[in-house]
Amino acid sequence: MSGIPQSKTIVPVVTVKDFMDRACGRFNLELVAGEAGLQTVIDEPVVHRPGLALSGFYEHFAAHRIQVIGMAEYAYLQSMTAAQRRERIEEILRIHRVSCIVFACGNEPFPVLLQTAEREGVVVFRASDLTRVFMMSATILLEELTSPRCRVHATMVDISGMGVLIEGKSGLGKSETALGLIKRGHALVADDMTCLCRQGINHLIACATETSRDFMEIRGLGMLNVRQVFGVGAVRREKQVDLVLTLMRQSEVEETLDRTGLERLERDFLGVKLPQRIIPVAPGRSLVNLAETAAQEQKLRLSGYVAVEELDKRIISLHSNKGV
What we know:
Elements: H1 16-23, E1 29-33, E2 47-48, H2 51-54, E3 66-69, H3 71-79, H4 82-95, E4 100-103, H5 111-120, E5 123-127, H6 131-145, E6 149-159, E7 162-168, H7 174-183, E8 187-190, E9 193-199, E10 203-208, E11 215-218, E12 222-225, H8 226-230, E13 238-240, E14 243-249, H9 250-253, E15 265-269, E16 272-281, H10 287-302, H11 307-323
Parallel strand pairs: 2-3, 3-4, 4-5, 7-14, 14-16
Antiparallel strand pairs: 1-5, 6-7, 6-8, 6-9, 9-10, 10-13, 11-12, 15-16
Helix pairs in contact: 1-6, 4-5, 7-10
């Protein structure tokens, strides 16, 4: 009952240009030198302050990370003689080949560093943010850029704030169920092919592919643009996955399905375990009602209330009272 298999997990390779393109939309980042190095791969997508390296101590120097020159590093470089500063810059840029350098707090990079960076093809940026603010924002951005991701044959919907991934074999009614939910005021995230991206340890974010965003295919109707037909409120760009509904033919599960709800099924995507419900598909069953109710019931479970446990307690209490 594990559901539809996911595609091969991909961990993206991030270049300095990838970082720059995404960063420009979030914080002020200005390219000031080394444009030839934009295709350099950031081997360790982490931000790092090269304090000890500036003093000439290179043991355990994380050269493959993004180097951030904050106020302390900038003041230290200013305190050096011109010859010392040139020597350190040459060692860091030419010998240790850092991925790129960011001058935080809007500080102006030293002319000798710009010259060396142009010659060695090392990208130099200037950021107007304070060092701690830049490092926090850059860390979050790098985590997003390098998050493991995959694609699954499933439909993703937002049901009253709950992200529900509906999976199952072709022809079981995933898209029709999503359409019924949209008509009830819920929203489509992705139809048929959903992209999943892990963020942190326990969060899974779903979105559509760039090509299929806002579109869904309904047998007999063809392609529908959900945004145009139902309005902008009927679509979401992305949504965290809170619940997985696996549609299966009733004949495949009728003997093994737990009817009480005591068995807690889980579905694993990219190492994230998500609560799963098996929904038997049979003539006359309203998948829209079942999907909507499953989302509402899962929301209750997250608050600590489980109906079957409450019923169990009631039965035990009644039997105990009769025994008295």
